[in-house]
Amino acid sequence: MGRMRRAVDHPAATRQQLLAAGAVVFAARGYREATVRDICREADSNVAAVNYHFGGKDGLYAEVLAEGQRQMHVLPPAKVVSADPGERLEFFVRGFLERVLAGAPESNHAQLMFREMIEPTRALDRVVAEFIRPAADELGGIVRELLGPGFSERERQLAGLSIVSQILNYKHCRPVIERLFPDLPLDAAQVGPLTRHITDFSLAALRGMRAVRAGSRRSKARKN
Amino acid sequence: MGRMRRAVDHPAATRQQLLAAGAVVFAARGYREATVRDICREADSNVAAVNYHFGGKDGLYAEVLAEGQRQMHVLPPAKVVSADPGERLEFFVRGFLERVLAGAPESNHAQLMFREMIEPTRALDRVVAEFIRPAADELGGIVRELLGPGFSERERQLAGLSIVSQILNYKHCRPVIERLFPDLPLDAAQVGPLTRHITDFSLAALRGMRAVRAGSRRSKARKN
DNA sequence: CCATAATTCAAACAACCGTTTGAAATGTCA
DNA sequence: TGACATTTCAAACGGTTGTTTGAATTATGG
After folding, report:
1. Domain check: are A94 and A48 in the same one?
2. CA of B172 vs C1' of D8, distance in Å?
3. pLDDT, tens digit (0-9, with 9 covering 90-100), for A93-104
4. How many domains does chain B have?
5. Prediction ipTM score
6. pTM: predicted TM-score of the whole model, two decimal places
């Protein structure tokens, strides 16, 4: 009777299908709202499969996230893309925006990490350490070059936050933006225009910070 | 046929307690994760009280949100605070940041609306129409003044989004920021410094946009 | 080929959820 | 006070959740 069973070359097949289905469902609904029954239906396997192969919902989630981090580390280096920090910033913004505006099925693992930021689970510490921290360091280097000397670590941190916030906003506040500006489509076609805006906006802001700092130093020198 | 509503009697105590408890628990855990039992325990009332007084969890949530909007409309006008658009922007940013960085018990209703942005329920449309849209219009007016003519509606929208995103980021990504920069406390004491940074950053960016636009027009005129 | 281990499966379990129920308690007013 | 509406309450209901169970099925190695 059961000859129409799914073709399984080797026993690890269900495991992989669960990982894939987990990435899809977790990315779509988040850890809490995703149900193991939905995941198993998506994976064409039994409800008990998750517990058998991963020890539970937590275990599957951790494995999906770890797989995503492994897969994410094949990121473009972006450090050697150009010597001009302005171009490096544009490259950074574009790469980020592509993941933010990508449709769900194309980058489930990235969507998962974006979810971790606003709906944290126990896995957030690992996500920060292995994914966010490196990105923050890279952006920090670019900001440091663009601002030049005379700025504190704190000031550079705030500038970096101001830049990434503009990108993440299109992910985190998507429902609001769609209602507020229905004529602003948030799809892959907008990566170019939004990259240009955010890069120009941020470069102008950093130049402004630099000019103000230089100006105040000049006036201080004048006073002496 | 129900008896006429009591006009001079003591206000329905349990109803008010449920509203207060709902604001606390919904703000702390979000609509989905908040349980009716938790709310009723917080309100010292029976589990059935929510259904009796509000028809269900949905009804209570809607009432809490409506109460918040009513309470929110007692906002400072901010339009007549100054004729200088730069000062108006600073006022806007500060007012927003105060709510973002406020502790939970002080501004539960504001926290609720921030939650609606990233974890929308059916109530988001009302929140956008009655709370977010007016704020966006106010910011849009400030941006219009600061940018001057020669910019499209779309460009002004993106500039506005770039500004509010910097503020909202401290709410939505708080868990990440706390892990990334543990020495950056996100409490009411930081309203001042963060207001100054975001305002300066944004004003410089808008000035830069304006300068680029003016420059390109000059060069175009040169070409003719 | 067969014993043994690994894997799948339907079914059930315990805990929690929002909601309902019907009686008890409380309040209201002739 | 007495009759009636309103409100409270413990208990239970139906549904969903993650997880467990134990037998059936499949793969593996001697």
Report:
1. no
2. 40
3. 999 999 999 977
4. 2
5. 0.90
6. 0.91
